[in-house]
Amino acid sequence: MNYIKELNAFYDWLEINELSPSAINLWYALMHINNKAGWVETFTVAESVLCVKTGLTDRTLRKVRNELKQKGRIDFISRKGGRAPIYKVISFLSAENNSGVQKAKEINSVVSAEGSAEGRSGGSAGDSSVLIKLNETKQNETSSSAAMRVNYFDQYMICFKGQPNPIQIQEINCLIEQEGISEEVVCVAFQKAAEVGAKYSYAKSILNNWVQKGIKTVHDVEKEQQSFQQKKQQQFYRGKPRRVEKIPSYFELDKPSNQKISKGDATTDANQIARLKALQEMYRNIN
Predict the structure, then answer these.
(1) Architecture of the CATH domain 3-92
(2) Rounded to whole angstroms, how far apart are CA atoms 88 and 86?
């Protein structure tokens, strides 16, 4: 079994198949254990070990284990007496080889039966071609809808250059399963942390803040960001200082003064007052 090829095949398989984040986590753990065991066909591992490696509870572990079996990705046999179950990871590569042999047999069958099918009416051939087109359309729709799915494992690896550890996986699964935050929102938090060069702890603080605000979907995130920008603009315009024009001192000459001026001072300053008034009149004419 080739570890890298199996991982790439698993990513490709997830594009057209639905699988819960906890089940993905368990598949990674089983692959890691099987790799250490030398890629044996079957191996045993205790549930307590898997709980530590995945961060899942016993109940969730059993649930997602059945999910992987139903999806055809693993097989296991439970044993009595407290003994560890026997696991088998179903390889994608062996499945591809088997499907290739099966397709070759089908092609040979079609070729051998081609001569006898020529005498049949064209109506049945037309019906079969329509059925093939309908199946292709359905597969294309399934592929396009699955491509829109977001996997926080992939987003974590893109943003933080590595895989999440079991504690981080447990925290993220708790936010998704208990707090009701969508997986897309988790990916948005990862992106925001990566944009500022931060690590997972920063993304975790963002998610905890959104939980307190009741933000669970991408639409909620967009509304919260719009509200934040509006408040920021309002605070900017409220705090902006007003421009105040400074009035020249000689404009104060028109205002009545309470100061008493003696006759001697009035005679001495008469020429200065006249000159200031002339300057005042000149300034008004200029404006």
Answers:
(1) Orthogonal Bundle (1.10)
(2) 7
Condensed to tens digits (0 to 9), the pLDDT of residues 26-64 reads 998 898 888 888 889 999 999 998 998 888 899 999 999
Specify the domain boundaries for CATH 1.10.10.10 within the chain: 3-92
Give the phi and the psi of residue 193 in degrees, each rounded to 5: -65, -40
Q: 100-156 pLDDT, tens per residue?
A: 444 444 444 544 444 444 444 445 444 445 444 544 554 444 444 433 445 677 788
User: Considering the entire predicted model, what is its pTM?
Assistant: 0.43
Angle among Cα 283, 286, 287 to the nearest 5 degrees reads: 90
DSSP one-letter string for 53-109:
HH---HHHHHHHHHHHHHTTSEEEE--STTPPPEEEEPPHHHHHHHHHHHHHHHHHH
Q: What is the distance in angstroms between the CA of the first residue and the CA of the last residue of the chain?
A: 90
Fold of 152-216: Arc Repressor Mutant, subunit A (1.10.10)
Q: Look up residue 162 and give its DSSP letter.
A: S
Half-sphere exposure of 141 (CA within 13 A, CB side): 6
Cα separation, 158 vs 200, in Å, equals 12
CA distances from 147 to 13, 18, 240 (A): 11, 11, 48
